[in-house]
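Good morning,

Both structures are done.
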Amino acid sequence: MAYIFLVVFALVNGYFFTNTFFLYDQSDMRALFSIVPLVYLFFIPAVSMGVISREKGLGTIEILATLPIRDFDLVLGKYLAVFTLIFVGLLTSSIHYITLTFVGTNIDHGAIFSGYLGLALMGGVYAAIGIFSSSLTDNQVVAFIIGIAIVMVFFLMDQLLVFVPSSMAGIVQYLSTGFHLSNISRGVIDTRNLIYFLSMISFFLFLTTHNVESRKWS
């Protein structure tokens, strides 16, 4: 199933890149970098929805709990499996970068590097959210819906600034994954953006580990 989602991910990205390159005569990666976060909204919850919920549904989570490994190690292993899939998906889009390089277009290699870095970090956050959602239920569909809901909240936060008090605007903007991605994609690799992404990953992995631990005593 993961390979199916990976193929779909590559095809969608390829479609939008091709449209931009051939139909609109734009020889850059901006369109691709703007569409990948939207693909993430569905792709990542889909590939992570069964990571833990499937184990719960089959009853194998109790078997895993008896293994001589820490709960965090179990969660981290599953997280790395999902993140690796996301990373491979990003690698498939590197063919577009290679294409632009060979056709001799004047591209900003630094901006492309920072764009990929931002997408990888955003994917890491959404993977942690997806696994957390999967730990909340034994139903994969429910986990998928919860994952999409949480991911969309963080993705759209900076679009909701007009609806929040000015005193809260800074906090809401800081919590937005889109805000930090846009900063990095412009080539601004600020430690504050890196700290945000890494903190979000750690936070949701912590919550997931707590849910797995509590399962032992339920």
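Second structure follows.
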Amino acid sequence: MIMTLIILGAYVAGIALGALAPALADQTSAATQPALMLLVFLVGIGTALDPSAWARLRSAGPRAIAVPVAVILGTLGGAALVAPLLPGMSLPDVLAVASGFGWYSLSAVMIAEARGEVMGALALMANISREVITLVFAGLMVRAFGPMAPVASAGATAMDVSLGIITIHGGREAGLVALASGFAVSLATPVFVGFFLSL
């Protein structure tokens, strides 16, 4: 939760600085692409250096595959259903925002680079909202829909920020599935965001 507040604070500070010094816009635009490449590169290194990453997928059993597939299909299906209600946004753009799967730091940068700052801000807020909703309503989700509900709601954040609250309300098995699902969905995020941005 602290990291979410830091990200939001940085975003608000960026808005303030942009309003006070519009000349910085050209410089920040030039820096966005290298920053994105560095972020993806560091994520790749982190994945390679994590010896337990693939073990997590195996330890969660069949649900390690079923849950992230359901998360991805459910997210994209839901986004496609609401897309006609969002005037001014194309279906590929709606699906690109949804494909952040809660990983706001990566998806917002990718989308801002391809579609501009307004779309990047929308991706940031949409994906932060996914994380916050999970943190606040995880207990209610478990009672209403079962222990996998907050895992699905958390998306990519199930393996880190949302893991604690998922384990508290859903139990140890839900925690294992959350680790595996979050890892798999995180791997899928740049692929799906990039694909929909290319359409």
